[in-house]
Here is the input.
Amino acid sequence: MADTSLNPYIRAQQSFKEAVDTLGLEPAVFDILKQPLRTFEVAVPFIRDDGTLQVFTGYRVQHNDALGPTKGGLRFHPDVTADEVKALAMWMTVKCALLGLPYGGGKGGIACDVDQLSDREIERLSREYIRAVSLVIGPDKDIPAPDVSTNPQIMAWMVDEYSRIRGENTFGLITGKPLVIGGSAGRVAATGRGLVFATRQLATALGLDFAQSRVAVQGFGNVGSVAAEIAASLGAKMVAVSDKDGGLYNPDGIDMADLLEYKRTHRALAGYPQADPISNHELLELPVDILFPAALENQITADNAHNIQARIVGEGANGPTTPEADAILFEKGVMVVPDVLGNAGGVTVSYFEWVQNQTRFYWSEQEINGRLEEYMARAMAEMHKMHERYGVTLRKAAYLVATERLAQAMRVRGWLT
Ligand code: NAD
Here is the structure.
C-alpha cells in the first residue's frame, strides 16, 4: 500500500487534534493550536552583483507563544512555502514544550536557491530579510536560528543588521552564531549529541546495552556524523554509514576516526577501502540494533517499514518516518525516538546560548553537555510515562506531554475562556 501523501501542515494539525482528544482537553486548546498565531509573508528585495534588483518571498511564522517567545530556524531553499514554514513552526512548538524550554515555536525562510547566489548576494539578502521582519522579531519576541542552507556566518550578518537598526548590540536576537560574537560552546555538535543521549536512554530502558549495540546511520552531515562519532566513543559498533551518494557497510565495524579523516581528505565517503559499498535503501534494512535516519524526510515508508530490523530508530532528521510506517513499526515492536525529541538537542543548546547572551556569562562545553543530557533525559522520561499510560507511540506521547503543557499555560493566561 502506498503512503498517503499529506501536507505537513495538515499532519501537524492532526497530531495536535489527536493529543487534545486523548487528553480530554477543552476544544479551545485545538482551536488555538491548529494554526499559527501570526504568519508574516514579506517581499525581500536585494541587489544582485550585476546591479539588478531581485525580489524573493520570505516568511516568518510564530505558531504559539504561550510558554515564551517563539523560537525556530530560518531555511533558505527553493521549496520553502507558507505551509511548510507553518508545519515546521508547529513542530518547534512541540519540541520546545516537550523539552521544557521557555519558548513557543516559530520558523522562517526564504524561497531561494543559495547555489545561484554569491556570498555577497547571500549577505545582502540576509540583511534585507532582517529589515523586512525586524519589527516582529527580537530576543523577547521571536528568536531565529540556522536551518537548511543557513549557517553561523548568515546568523552573524543578521544579528549585525538588527543591532544596527536598534543602535545597540543585540546578540540574544539569534542563536547559532559564531563563538566570537556570543555563540555557545557545544552548539555545533548539540543535535547529534542529543540524539545519542536520548537513544541510549531508551536502549537502557529496553534492556539493550548501548555499548554493545550495532548501529547504522543514514546521512553523514552535521547530525549524522556527530551522532556516529559520539556513539562510537561510547562503545557502539558503527557497522554502516551513508551520504547522498550511497553507503558503506562493514559488519565488523567501521573505525569512525579513520573514516572522518578519509572524508576530510577525499570530501566523500565513497571509495573508503575498509567497508563495502551499499545503497541508502539497503542501509535502512540492515541487521542492526539501532538505526539513525539523519538525512531527509520520508525515508521509512509503508514500502520498507516491514523490513526494518533495528530495535530502535532514533530520528535525527525531521520527518524521516511516514505516519503509515510509524504504525507498522509500532506493531512490529520497533521503538522510534521521534524527531521532536531526537533532534531537539539543537534547540536546547540554542536556549543555553540565548541564556548566556542575556546574562553575558558564558559556560564551558562540559557544562553545556551536562545540562543538555539533563534536559534530554527529563523529556525522555516524561514522554515514556505518557507512552506507558496511554499505550501510544513515543511520537504521540511526545505530543501529549507538549499539548498538556501548552494547555496549562494557555489556561492560566486566560486564553481558553
Ligand atoms: P547536512 O546538510 O549537514 O547533512 C545531510 C546529510 O544527508 C549529508 O551527509 C548528505 O549527503 C546526506 N543526504 C542528503 N540526501 C541524502 C539521501 N537521499 N540519502 C542519504 N543521505 C542523504 O544536514 P544536517 O544539519 O545534518 O541535517 C540533517 C537532518 O537533520 C535534516 O532533516 C534537518 O532538518 C535535521 N535537523 C538538523 C539539525 C541541526 O542542528 N543540524 C537540527 C534539527 C534537525
About this structure: Residues 35-171 form a domain with the Rossmann fold fold (CATH 3.40.50.10860).
